[in-house]
Specification:
180 residues; two-stranded antiparallel sheet
Length: 180
């Protein structure tokens, strides 16, 4: 399993901020990011403190692709696992993915769909699934993400109504959104 360690994540954020220093100076607080800076990101295991600057980088057309790449690496614990930071990041991802003005919107939507898929409970009787995904008891971030999806059902409904979302992604979002 390829897990990006905390030091590598910090270094990736530092490189991003070095290459896109204007992101630090931008005071333009997007409504979708309200509350992002108040989260104690560094208290989440393996999570860099400068996550709010990566989210802000998503708003900058030039920096957005790299901000999305670095943020994805931080929010994914590995190929089949969400990081412990995903539940805290998910409300901001949902809000940004629902905003048609965001240049990397489709990439953020893809990340939201992956989070939706990986947050589903794993059948403890399915040995292969447990080997690939681990037990739910070892991954509390799954249940936490499901709670975030439930809490933000109105954003999910907006994404479900979006013509750019394909049928397969819609089905996954419906699963985490529950009955509407």
């Amino acid at each position: 399993m390829c897990v990006v360690d905390a030091a590598a994540k910090e270094a990736a954020v530092a490189r991003f901020l070095n290459e896109h220093a204007r992101v630090r100076r931008t005071d333009n607080e997007h409504p979708a990011l309200r509350g992002c800076a108040e989260i104690a990101w560094s208290e989440i295991p393996g999570c860099p403190a400068d996550i709010p600057l990566l989210f802000r980088g998503l708003l900058d057309q030039d920096a957005a692709p790299e901000a999305k790449r670095v943020l994805t690496n931080i929010l994914m614990g590995s190929v089949f696992h969400l990081s412990e930071a995903m539940p805290a990041a998910l409300p901001f991802l949902l809000r940004l993915a629902a905003d048609p003005e965001i240049s990397v919107r489709s990439d953020l939507l893809d990340l939201v769909v992956v989070a939706a898929e990986l947050s589903q409970p794993v059948d403890a009787d399915n040995e292969r699934a447990v080997r690939l995904l681990g037990k739910d008891s070892d991954h509390p971030e799954r249940e936490q993400c499901r709670a975030v999806f439930s809490e933000h059902a109105s954003l999910l409904r907006a994404l479900l109504d979006d013509d750019t979302v394909d049928a397969a992604d819609r089905a996954i979002l419906r699963q985490v959104g529950g009955p509407h």
